[in-house]
Structure formats: C-alpha cells, structure tokens
Give the backbone structure.
Amino acid sequence: MPSIILTDAASDTSAGPRKLSAADFGLAGDHAWSVAWRALRGGRRDGVDLIELDNGAFSLAIVPTRGMGLWRARFRGVPLGWRSPVLDGPVHPAFVNLADRGGLGWLDGFDELMVRCGLTSNGAPYEVVTTNPDGSVARRETVGLHGRIANIPAHHVSVRVDAEPPHAITVEGRVAESTVFLTQVEMTTTITTEPGSNRFVVRDEFVNRSDSPGSMQLLYHWNLGPPYLGEGAEFVAPIESLAPRDPRAAEGLGHWTTYGAPEPGFAEQVYLARLRGDGPEGRTLALLKAPGGTRGVVLRFRNAQLPCFTLWKCTRGPAEGYVTGLEPATNYPNPRPFEEARGRVVPLGPGGRFVAETAFEVLEGAEAVAAAEAEVAALQAQGAPTIHPKPVEPFTAAG
Amino acid sequence: MPSIILTDAASDTSAGPRKLSAADFGLAGDHAWSVAWRALRGGRRDGVDLIELDNGAFSLAIVPTRGMGLWRARFRGVPLGWRSPVLDGPVHPAFVNLADRGGLGWLDGFDELMVRCGLTSNGAPYEVVTTNPDGSVARRETVGLHGRIANIPAHHVSVRVDAEPPHAITVEGRVAESTVFLTQVEMTTTITTEPGSNRFVVRDEFVNRSDSPGSMQLLYHWNLGPPYLGEGAEFVAPIESLAPRDPRAAEGLGHWTTYGAPEPGFAEQVYLARLRGDGPEGRTLALLKAPGGTRGVVLRFRNAQLPCFTLWKCTRGPAEGYVTGLEPATNYPNPRPFEEARGRVVPLGPGGRFVAETAFEVLEGAEAVAAAEAEVAALQAQGAPTIHPKPVEPFTAAG
Amino acid sequence: MPSIILTDAASDTSAGPRKLSAADFGLAGDHAWSVAWRALRGGRRDGVDLIELDNGAFSLAIVPTRGMGLWRARFRGVPLGWRSPVLDGPVHPAFVNLADRGGLGWLDGFDELMVRCGLTSNGAPYEVVTTNPDGSVARRETVGLHGRIANIPAHHVSVRVDAEPPHAITVEGRVAESTVFLTQVEMTTTITTEPGSNRFVVRDEFVNRSDSPGSMQLLYHWNLGPPYLGEGAEFVAPIESLAPRDPRAAEGLGHWTTYGAPEPGFAEQVYLARLRGDGPEGRTLALLKAPGGTRGVVLRFRNAQLPCFTLWKCTRGPAEGYVTGLEPATNYPNPRPFEEARGRVVPLGPGGRFVAETAFEVLEGAEAVAAAEAEVAALQAQGAPTIHPKPVEPFTAAG
C-alpha cells in the first residue's frame, strides 16, 4: 500500500501544498476522490495545516495542527458539524491557553465535528495544590477542561491508498502528548473511507512510550448542529442505565431523547449512560435522527473500548452554539480524580497499548434511519433501560 | 468604493505581500499614498502581519495580528509612539501569556501607540474563585490586565479608497473576541485618513454575535513619548472632575497637568476624570502639548461613547518607558467587578451594537496648538473643574 | 571580521534558508565547514528557526527560536545530547505554556544538550500572592520552573568568521527577556568554534537595558545521555563542598560520582556543590567520563562567574529520559526568594553588564580523559572535599 508523507518531524520532512489523487498512488483510470493539504492563513487560523479528504461523496476537513481533529464534513453537499461561536476557526493552538479562564481556555478553540478529549485527563477543570515540606504552597495548578490532545499538532501525517478495490483511502497522523516526568503517550490515528462511501472510520492506537507505567483517559466529542439537529430531532441508543449529571439535567428527563428548538441562553443538559452492546466486545451504536426522520447520523463503537457514553444537549440560540454532543469515552467527563477513584482510567504499562475505533455513518432516507433504529431496538430488547431520576453514583456524585 | 481584501478567514482568502497604490483602486494620475502589507520575520515578531498606511504625510503601522492596534506612526518624519522596554515588538500573541505573571502577561507585548483594552474586561487583574457544591475550589482564575482584544488577530483585513476626492483611504479589520459560553463580540474597525492629512479616525463598531445578552468594556490606550512628551510637556483637557487613583497619584496633584523629565524608577501616577463636552453627544478633546508649545497631538471623541478618561503619567527613564497614556474609555481601569457595580459596562443585547470613534490629529506650530487650547478653554468655560485631593468614589475606592 | 546577518528585528531583516560556507566570507581555498539556516516545519517544531554549524568535525544545532539553546551536537558522528521524552522537538515556544502544570510547563519543551535557565529566575516553581489594600487576593502567580529565556526567540542572529587562521567561526544571537515594569535584560551570546576543533565556547553577555537597577539569575543546564552516560560513567570535578538537595539525593551519597544503568521510574537525585578553582577567577572544570573511560566531555568555566554547581542524576529508563545534567550557575535551583536571601542573584545596575563563558570539549581516547582527570586532581589537591551527609544551608534548606 503506497504511502505519501506530508509531514514527518523525525525525518525532517514536510511537503508544501499538495492535492493528491489516484494517479499519485499509481492507480490508473478515473477516480473521483482527492486529498488536499495546505496551511491556512489569517486570523486565529494562521499556520493551521488542513487536510481535505474528499471520497467523491463525503468530504472531511482534518486538522493535523489540532491533534488530528475533524473540523467539519460534508456529505453530498449537506454539512456535518455545527456553527460554533468561535467564529474564525480552526484555531491555532498558539491562540488557545488551556490554563486560562480558570481552566476553560479549551473552549476558545472548540468548533469541531469531532474533537478528542484527553489524554492525561478530560472532563471538568479541577485544582491541584502541591505543598512544600513546610506546608506553604509550592505550586497551584488548575487542570483544564478536556485536556491537551486537541491542541497538539501531529508530528507525522501521511496518506495511503489500498492497491486493491475499493481502494480505501487512509489519512494517518501521529500526535504525542509527551513531556518530561509526566504523560508520554503517542497516538496514531487512521481515518479511513472508501471512495463514494457514506462512512468513515477513526481508529486510534495509543502507546505509552515511557519505560514506566502510565494511564490515559479519552473522550470523543462528536458535535452536530443543523440540519441533523433541530426541533424534534431524536437521540436513539440502546440504554442500559442513564443518569443526569446534575439537577439541571434532571429537569429535562421527561423528554431527554428529544431536542427542542434553539433557545437563547439554554443551560446545557448532560446525561451519563451505559449502553447495551452485542457480543464479547459489546458492539453498539448511537443515532441522531434528524427532524422528520429522513436523515440521521450513526456512531458505531464498542463498549469494550469506550464503555462510558455522554450525551450533551446544548440547544442554545443558532448563533451561540445550537449543538448536541454524542460522546463515547473511556470515562465520564468528571474531574479525573473522581473517575480514577471509580476505575475509569485506562492503565498503560511500559510500552502498553490501547485501541479505540469509531465508525461514523450518514443515513439518507427514512429506510436507512429505520434500519438503524431497528438495530438499536434489537439491543434494547436485552432489557429495559434504568433511568435514574437524579444524579447517582457511580456516574457522578449523588445529588 | 472599490475594496481589496488582504485576508478573510470566512472566504479562505489571504494575499501575499503587497503594496497597494491608487492605480490598484482604479484612480488615474499621481497619488503620493500607499498601503503595504506583509508578515514580519524573526524574534518575537515572527509571523506578525503588518500594514503600513502612508497617506503621503502621515504613516501608520497597523497590526492585524495584534487586534488591529496601531504600533506606531510618523508624521512628516516625526515619530509618534514611545520607546517601550519591549525591545523587539510588535510581539506575536503566541509569545504573550495573558494569564502569566499573575495576570500581568499583557505587558510583555505592550509597545503600541494605540492599543485597545477589553472587551470582556479591561483594567487591573483580579481573581475569581469558583467553588464546587462541596465547597472545594473548582477553578481559580486570575483575570488579566487589560483583556484579550489586543492579542487576537483580525480574521478580515481589507482596504478601500473613496472614488471621490479627497479619496479617503480606509483600512478595515474585524476581530472576534468570541468563545463558547462567554463573550461573543466582534469588532469592525475602520482606520481612515485622507491623502496628505494630519489626522486619522479610528471608528470601531462592536456587535454582540450571540443570541443572548452580553456586555463589554473598552479603553483606548494612546501612548506617547518624545518628542511630544518631554520635560515641560502639558496635558490640556476640559475637566469636569478628576481624582487620583491612589495615594501615589495624589502626591502629584500639585502639578498633574505637567510632565517632568525622565526619572529612572518613577512610579506611575494615574488620574481618573470626567471631561466636559459639547452638544448632545458631549464632543470633547484632550491635548498633549509638547515642551515649548509648538507641537502637539489631539484626541477627539465623545462622552456619549467614551465617558471615562484616564491619564497615565509614567515618566520613567528613557530606556524603561518614558511615556504618557491618554485613555478615553467606557470605564475606568479598575477591576471589572468594581466597574460593573457602578454601571460602567456597556450592555449589548442579542445582536446589539456599540460604536466608538476617536480622531487623532497632529498639531504643528504654535498657532495650531493655541487653537486646540482655545477649544479646550471654551469647554472648560462651562464650569470650574472639581479636583479631588484623594481617591474618591465613584472613580475608585475611596482612600 | 565580515559578518552575515540572518535575522535582525531592529533593521527589519530576515534571510531565507541559506547555507553559508567560507566563500561567503571571502575566504579562498577549501574549507570543510558550513553554517546552515532554515525554519523547521510540522508538529510542535513548526516555525522553529534552526542553525546547523558544522566545523568539519563538530556539528552543533543551535535554536534561535528557543533562546539560542543548543538542541544537540555530534562530534565525528557520535551524538551529544539526550533522548528526551519530548518526542518531536525542538518545540516552538507557542506550544510551551510556562505557567501551566503548576509552573512545570517548561518541561514540555525540554530536550536540549544545553538550555539556559533564567533570567528573572531559575529553579523550582513558587507561588507569589499579591493582595489588595483590603486584604483580598489581587493576583496569584506561580513563578514557573527555570524561567523564560529558553522560550524567547532571538531578535538578532548573525554569523562571522575570523579573517585570520584558524578562521574561528562565530554564531551570534541576541535574546531580550524584556517587558514593561520588570526584567529588561538582553543577552548577546556568541558560540564560537574553530574548523576541525573538538571544542566550542559559549560566551554570554547580559546587559540591563533599564535605567533602573535590576538583577538576574542564570543556570546552564548541560544534558548528556548515551554514549557518554551509561552504567559506570563517572562525574569528576574538584569539589570544595557538596550537599544533597533532599533526602532522596542523600540516599545516593555513597556512590554519587558514579552512574547506574537505566532504571525505569528512577527518582532524580540532585547535588549542590562548590568547586575548587585556579587563579583569581577560579578557573575550573567538570568532567563526565563515559563507561570504560575512553571518552568524555568537559565543561570549563570560572567560579568568579558561575560559582554554584548543580549535578542532576536522572538515570531513568532509556525512553523516559536517561540523562545527567552538569549545571554551572550563578545560584542553586531553589526558588528565587531562597537564593536572593543568600545573596545568590546577580545585581545589574542601570546599563550594568554580566558575562559568563563556558567551553565544551569532547575527549577522545583514554589519554585525553586521563589528562582531564589530572587537571581535576591538581585542583582537588587544594584540600579534601566536604561532603555533607544531609541537606544543609546555605545550599538548601537544612533537612
């Protein structure tokens, strides 16, 4: 499988702007796909590298400079993603101060269709105070929301294409959340799609590059706005159990699977769930069904890899972030100490490895949507869902 | 009015280095003006975009990368601005950590003739502690000095020229202080001058891009050193009332309108004032009269837009910042909570708008200076100034 | 001595990628040396300027963007430096948040053979709280580990070559740690070597650019891994007195001059020493003798300039940082307030100046190593070393 390197720090390689097509990979004949690579200029995006992968039907904007996140996508002309209040993204990490705003600086760059949260931690900010032997404060750290990985540039980016039909196209990126005396985990992500397909797969492999034991947390923040989100849109997934994160979320339990119209100032509602799955790996799915039911998106993943699912309902006004987040993860987005105490970190021995894979599909037509709903129903048939009326352990602090 | 776009994130446009002249705007004949655009290289300025607007007599260095601030200017060869201890500016925001130095990181990039302070807040740093339901500290934020706007790059920059004489030249920039769940204000600034003129106008329009109510603060920090500042230079403005910010400023009240020679280690003195103005909008002006009185600069603005005026006297040694700041603003540079409690924030409804306009003029010759002084005197004739001997409310905490 | 400017902010000069050789300096004939200059691309090194100085035997990678640090070197093909867990350096300062991680953010970019620590402070992080007149917290600052200088780009870089044999080659860089109301010190470093030589000299001159008195601290963090460091490697220096930094270091006192094999999770051991020196300036040296004793590196410096020597033993696993630090300095790496109280800051009057010079030599062959050991022995003959069994003043807090 021929591979073309776009950037590679180890070998001191970096390509200028390029647009790759089938011929670059030795494929004869007509092919409708392409992979373009360039650096953006101006505003807060100045210097951001962008990959535009177009499989002929599905186009993906991948951002190596932002940890190989998926900025946005388009399937047959219909946009996937959301309209973030961050007006001029994708934002270069140089303009994102994770430690600022009391640990909410991460929000300054948050505008992606899919952004990874982690790796040292994800979830809400928390404070850690380190004292000197004499009891005075040596260091005071606010660990910021959702971690660092989304603001670390990939040190390697390459593209490869299967020599055999259907000639799957893969963009690979490597991102190191690696420092001295702390986390030393490297992610290798492959984003793969087939020409003309309505789906792509994000497969991430994480390796502890240290000689000592380590650990990680990981949350995939998939974010959708119109036209998939709208008044009457529905969230459909096979629930084993679910709890509201806080009293505000509890208020919405009567209609937690449906979405309202944009509502300026809407206070977000977050639900924490375990999903039912199939087989030894717990294969499962979550569906966002657009209003009217003739369109939707599906995430497919495995409970064995991503056992904690968070649903973020944020139906604010159209200009301030009308969006829902579907978030399969290794943990819930509580502060890491809370999660660690409940065993929700991934241990990584020296050289240890962890893999997570998620498929993203676009559904077109009522039939395709109904088929996905039937899949969910088949899993739900394993047992009725437990819906907790209030915040409860172990999802979150009981309240 | 033809317009040439230099950078525009929304349309994914960015020009390479250019030097625009009248012909680029379809004007025939000889014109002495130009607008140049390029990125700086090296040191802490690496990657900073710079616009050099030369109207034939007045040249302005505008910095899109630093929020459309005015780095420095030159009128008929005489420099306007100051010699900042920041030796190698204009400094790229990537090298300015606003949260650092206990919220004084902003100072690391402070070297402009005019820098905007705001928009979420301006003024002195303060700490905000957010607690968890159990009382523990969730987040601790030091809100930094003078806010973010000066360290946010413009996502749109364009130049236009009036088709009709005198063919006014306008540089337009748009800067978004916009994040998720917080401030979402976009500024559109136009910096306009006429060929050969001794003045330019900065007109800023701020729009709340959110669907929810918001607010802003704004302070224009105009900073001048030699030759306009020097021993014997005078500040002249129509004072309604004025108070020293603190005991240190109170010490200087006996000669607060005049400036001393450079004095190493001089501790800054800050005065907070209301100016008298003319007409329903309270049109007013402030003058810095150079030693000898044959040269000066004037700011013209409106109390209806910028009701709070701060004078910063910082006559330190020549190498460490011998400078004075003339600062028309929506508020005084106290911490925002103090100002908010006294009604000194600008409310912005959903889609709401606020405009502030300031004209900057260079005066050459004793006659021009005297004319400006006469203007001030005419306003001052409305009533004698009230000069408070000590810090008082509502300017600042009484002391 | 002809000089070629590669970048100079003051004159708005910056060269594109270049490879300079003798002919560029007007030297005829064959010369094996070169100086290359370019910007790196990709990952966290994106935009980092690099100078590769190759004297024909010794090649040095100098990083103007990281304060003129020495990223790594190679002598006759043998690498000097270490394998840092920072996988994709040299890291652009835009990706290093010194205030983050409770003041340990500096570690995110730490991968050099030689990195300067300072100038406002170096050493361990500490917290400074500033209060308002009413006792409330105005600002809270965590002063970060090892200071700022390593993350400030040089605003001037040039290369010059002696017209006379042996045609010494010098790279000069100027770095300003300069802000408003605080430190205003500019460093001019010259890194000089002769064609074919096994040594180079780093001479740094620091000037207080302020009109007011200032001060500085400086520590040279020279870091070596294999093949100079390995099981059985030895540290050899003329000790006057030495103390462990803490109980952990005290544990290793029985064999503090020798190094163990890589040991995953090894907790660092730090020793603080005064060295014996020769003559009025206290000329001295420190040697790292590779396992087997047929290879080594020597640092030569002066107690008059750098009176405090720190030895850092960090024999962790090979992938997590197997490294030792030889650190001549103006102070020990305790928090600045501790050092200041013991007179270990360098006062700099207005315009005041401080110079420090260090020579780095590679030793090849047992004879060269033995000669350096003999030099150490001659100095040690001045008197027996005092080895304190526990942390003691004035090195560190007694424990």
Q: What stands out?
A: Chain A touches chain B through 42 residues (CB under 8 Å). The mean pLDDT of chain A is 96. The first helix of chain A runs from residue 247 to 251. Residues 126 and 143 of chain A are 5 Å apart (CA to CA).
